[in-house]
Amino acid sequence: MTNTHAATIRAFILGRHPRAELTDEQDIFSLGFINSLFAMELVMFIEKQFAVSLPNNELRIDNFRTVSSMAELVERRLSAASAA
Fold it and tell me: What is the model's pTM?
């Protein structure tokens, strides 16, 4: 995981919740930061920001639970794209 990917994702989330304190390991669902609309915006942000495609099998809640898990997802998708 790169710190840059995590920082970019964290900044996007905090743009919606500017008063929140968020670490890369906190569960954003249990903190109440995510509703169904914002979940879709988050998927679209990741795809556009990092120029990756997220296949249906990657659209699991565990991949979006924390900033770290999202940054790891980005890394996996970037690696898959470069290997293709």
Answer: 0.91
